[in-house]
Amino acid sequence: MDQYSLLGRIGEGAHGIVFKAKHIETGETVALKKVALRKLEDGIPNQALREIKALQEIEDNQYVVKLKDVFPHGTGFVLVFEYMLSDLSEVIRNSQRPLTEAQVKGYMMMLLKGVAFCHENSIMHRDLKPANLLISSSGHLKIADFGLARLFSNEGERLYSHQVATRWYRAPELLYGARKYDEGVDLWYDFHYLKWVA
Ligand code: ADP
Ligand code: MG
Question: What residues does ATP bind to (predicted)?
Fold first, then answer.
């Protein structure tokens, strides 16, 4: 942790606190996500492990946020990500006028390419929503927050939890409590955004 100097808090979600920081040696700006263990006896939280595993297993893709490093800290972990200027929920909230059709198409395209890439690598994200889509200073969109992600198999025998995704964004099969579902749950969200941005 002493390799970084903290520059401020960026976000706080369900699973951790995110700080803007500078890598002292290289001067690079990064985002540090601290994932704490609630109680020592809980062991390593599944959510943190999932995120690390999902992100480490996939090669670099321009539409998925890059995990640069992971290290233990206190009773938890710190995940080091490339720094992104904003997220889509802030972009939607802060823009003076509705996004243009060209912007919506651009974001949609990058989102779908990122989702396709995850699915090609057998990863269901399961929590896609504007706050988990990061936007760089150059307007690039990258999928982030793999805290609920999991690897899927195409054998169709696996049972999954339906308690995933933020309620507003849950696909119908999850709302109905399905335990067998597939990567289609990520696509429901995609179309749901159109309501937000269009
Ligand atoms: P949580 O699991 O707590 O929801 P997220 O990974 O979604 O954690 O991060 C919470 C918020 O922090 C995001 O909605 C975003 O605003 C901000 N954030 C996360 N990662 C980055 C990053 N790499 N660069 C800039 N901001 C980030
Ligand atoms: Mg999040």
Answer: 33
